[in-house]
């Protein structure tokens, strides 16, 4: 009888905790901002702000407030974050498992940061960290986790799985020098691909989605799948939204697949044109409801903000021209009969420069096809030498031009609101795609790889 009563009590407690919201209290002793997940919170000195998370059993999110740390939270957790006047960040120790767990995670993050310092600025590290390397870090992390779980055996239920997964993929990414940038067109050894592909069977357990290193490995592998598509799950290259959802089907049904489909669409949300909204909405309907609602809200707001924007008429060949490095004038119309990838950029634009290596790799893959790669710089005449210097240093291929006309007219012609700006023109002069995601996303490659060989 006592055993039955004990089971009933345990069951009631579990039901009470299940689905309970997570509460995070932000206490600002100074003016500060906090980024938690995808949201930014601006706080005034003396202000208290509450963040409530609902709808899931677990949450694995990054918190940025002068320093970055990974937080792992479960339903019913409460955590107080204090932003001190000295710019320090404190996770208030209230004696709870939640506080201890997340302060332990800060210790883990600190050790990872010290490894980065050991690689680039070893002179800044205390003596006890001399010779710090990945092997030592991983050994320490495993020992720390074993000690932590001895103290808090209740965290073996979910947290242990998340952290074992985290350590596995942290080692993989660090050992192979894979950082936070996109991995599109990156070449991997057979052994590396085999290890990366383990993200697929590991996705059978929904809990792995809360590991940041696992998720980074997923993004890297999805970048590879988008280009190579070994199982041929994607359709025609111009069905970019549909293909982004199909990529998720490489993974088993569950939390990982759902998040991939959402993340893929969210990453290209900015470039969704109103006249293609219907295609995008069809793909959104296939997402898990909680993700679909978020994307619809974002897109509705985006459409409202862009209500006044005109769209460039299709079947109109853009009348554009520029000068070569030698000062010769070249009109875009001179390339009629070929497909044109137009890249509007500038030497002073960081995101534009980040696309240059991806553009070079894509040109190499598409060599021999009936495509002209035209890069049109909007650098001013005063920066002409700077433009020439960058082209030479980065060995930029394709047709390199500098705009000699008015930038305002270019912006109006192509409806440009920011650079880099990518557009595709077909051999008849039709502007078939205007305002595409960067080459680094791989979507432009998927479209252009279907262009026939010259």
TrEMBL record:
Residues 311-453 form the Thioredoxin domain. Residues 1-19 form the signal peptide. PROSITE patterns: THIOREDOXIN_1, THIOREDOXIN_2. CDD domains: TlpA_like_family. Its main location: other. One of its GO terms (biological process) is cytochrome complex assembly. Keywords: Cytochrome c-type biogenesis, Disulfide bond, Isomerase, Redox-active center, Signal. It is found in: Cell envelope. One of its GO terms (molecular function) is antioxidant activity. InterPro entries: AhpC/TSA (IPR000866), Thioredoxin-like_sf (IPR036249), Thioredoxin_CS (IPR017937), Thioredoxin_domain (IPR013766), Thioredoxin_ResA/DsbE_sf (IPR050553). One of its GO terms (cellular component) is cell envelope. This is Thiol-disulfide isomerase/thioredoxin. It comes from Butyricimonas faecihominis.
């Amino acid at each position: 009888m006592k055993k039955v009563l004990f089971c009933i009590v345990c069951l009631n407690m579990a039901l009470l905790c299940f689905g309970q919201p997570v509460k995070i209290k932000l206490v600002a002793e100074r003016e500060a901002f906090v980024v938690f997940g995808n949201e930014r919170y601006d706080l005034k000195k003396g202000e208290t702000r509450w963040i409530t998370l609902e709808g899931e059993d677990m949450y694995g999110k990054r918190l940025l407030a002068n320093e970055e740390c990974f937080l792992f939270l479960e339903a019913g957790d409460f955590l107080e974050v204090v932003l001190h006047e000295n710019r320090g960040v404190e996770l208030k120790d209230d004696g709870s498992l939640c506080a201890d767990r997340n302060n332990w995670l800060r210790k883990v993050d600190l050790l990872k940061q010290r490894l980065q310092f050991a690689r680039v600025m070893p002179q800044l590290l205390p003596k006890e960290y001399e010779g710090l390397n990945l092997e030592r870090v991983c050994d320490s992390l495993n020992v720390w986790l074993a000690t932590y779980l001895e103290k808090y055996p209740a965290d073996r239920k979910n947290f242990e799985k998340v952290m074992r997964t985290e350590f596995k993929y942290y080692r993989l990414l660090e050992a192979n020098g894979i950082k936070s940038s996109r991995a599109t067109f990156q070449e991997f050894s057979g052994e590396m691909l085999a290890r990366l592909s383990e993200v697929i069977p590991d996705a059978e357990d929904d809990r792995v989605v809360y590991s940041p290193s696992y998720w980074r490995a997923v993004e890297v592998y999805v970048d590879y799948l988008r280009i190579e598509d070994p199982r041929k799950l994607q359709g025609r290259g111009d069905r970019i939204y549909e293909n982004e959802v199909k990529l998720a089907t490489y993974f088993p049904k569950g939390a990982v697949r759902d998040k991939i489909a959402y993340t893929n669409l969210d990453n290209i949300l900015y470039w969704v044109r109103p006249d293609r909204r219907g295609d995008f909405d069809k793909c959104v309907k296939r997402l898990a409801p909680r993700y679909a609602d978020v994307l619809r809200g974002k897109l509705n707001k985006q459409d409202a903000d862009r209500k006044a924007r005109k769209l460039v008429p299709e079947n109109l060949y853009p009348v554009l021209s520029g000068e070569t490095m030698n000062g010769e004038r070249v009109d875009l119309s001179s390339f009629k009969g070929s497909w044109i990838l137009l890249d509007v950029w500038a030497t002073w634009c960081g995101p534009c420069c980040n696309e240059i290596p991806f553009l070079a790799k894509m040109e190499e893959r598409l060599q021999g096809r009936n495509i002209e790669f035209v890069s049109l710089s909007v650098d001013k005449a005063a920066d002409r030498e700077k433009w020439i210097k960058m082209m030479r240093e980065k060995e930029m291929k394709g047709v390199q031009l500098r705009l000699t006309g008015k930038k305002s007219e270019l912006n109006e012609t192509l409806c440009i609101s920011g650079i880099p700006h990518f557009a595709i023109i077909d051999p008849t002069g039709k502007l078939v795609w205007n305002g595409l995601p960067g080459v680094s996303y791989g979507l432009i490659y998927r479209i252009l790889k279907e262009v026939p060989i010259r």
